[in-house]
Amino acid sequence: MAGASAGSDDGAVCDINVTPMTDVLLSLLIIFMVATPQENTQLPVNIPTSSPVQSPSDPNATLLISIDAAGKAKLGETELSDDYDAMVATLKANPKLLADGKVAIDADGKVPYGKVIRVMAAARDAGVPAVGIASNRLL
Prior knowledge:
The protein is of the alpha/beta class.
């Protein structure tokens, strides 16, 4: 017959030799990497030079719940009660808070963590979907 028999060993290899193919592909990769133009373009970025300052009387400002070192919480200029239910009722009564749907909490560094969490929970129970933490700008 025309084909090789099972017992004959004529030196023909039936496996694909991938070494030359790998060498050619790596050579092409290096050639394309060298031939590709290297553009060092920089995109202009506008970085603000100063942070915007919002006053408490600004109608577009985010409402701020501030907690002083003694643990007294204020929503803007309104004093918040230490009673949890009264605090939730005061937050629910603020129309801007419910219309904006966001509030930031600014607490003194000496305030216990539990007090801040309690104010955050009261804001969430009042129906405010976005409760954040206000921080000082770090430079």
